[in-house]
Design a protein that fits this description.
By secondary structure, this protein is of the alpha+beta class. It has one helix spanning about 5-35; strands at about 50-55, 65, 75-80, 95-100, 110, 115-120, 125, 135, 145-150, 155-160. It has a 4-stranded antiparallel beta sheet with strand order 5-6-7-8, with no helix packed on it. It has a 3-stranded antiparallel beta sheet with strand order 1-10-9, with no helix packed on it. It has a 3-stranded antiparallel beta sheet with strand order 2-3-4, with no helix packed on it.
Length: about 170
């Protein structure tokens, strides 16, 4: 028999596992230090600046479907007719959100009368006027909202995203 107690065995095992994890992390930390910063820990990613529409093309209560930041990410642009959190335009009522529910990725439908997005899978409701706030449902996160800018000509540009797109570990572009 060995003189190793159960406690000593568990402590030794924890040290071995911790050492293996640290040894695996060292090369990536050294590489990140050479580049200046660890990019996976950044909260603001270098999103493309993409024109989505012009203010004149939008009608109150009618959604416009597009994609951002890539073709695999459907989004909806809407003019609510009343001011919204992070809204842009002269009336601060133009917003854009991911069309995928943050719970299981269901395709959302927009209801202009209540300015809400509804998921058909588990009936989650998100409030477009309140920045995609989850009103009810099984989702645990609010709806990802696009950061928008309007130029002097009235063109609307997507420049970033607040929140994690469904199905991604990070909103990193491939």
């Amino acid at each position: 028999m060995s003189d190793v107690s159960r406690r000593h065995f568990l402590q030794l095992g924890a040290c071995v596992v911790g050492g293996a994890c640290a040894a695996d992390a060292l090369p990536s930390l050294a590489h990140a230090a050479e580049g200046g910063e660890i990019t996976t820990l950044r909260t603001t990613l270098p999103y493309p600046r993409v024109k989505l529409a012009s203010i004149g093309q939008l009608t109150i209560g009618r959604e416009q479907l597009t994609t951002y930041p890539d073709q695999a990410s459907p989004v909806v642009l809407a003019k609510l007719g009343r001011p919204a959190i992070n809204g842009v335009g002269p009336d601060r009522d133009i917003v854009a959100f991911s069309r995928r529910c943050s719970h299981m990725g269901g395709t959302l439908s927009f209801r202009p009368d209540t300015a809400t997005f509804h998921c058909p899978l588990h009936y989650a409701f998100f409030d477009a006027q309140k920045g995609g706030l989850l009103v009810i449902g099984q989702a645990t996160d609010n709806l990802p909202q696009l950061e928008l800018e309007v130029d002097a000509a009235g063109d609307i540009f997507a420049v970033g995203i607040r929140g994690l797109l469904y199905g991604r570990q990070a909103n990193v572009l491939a």
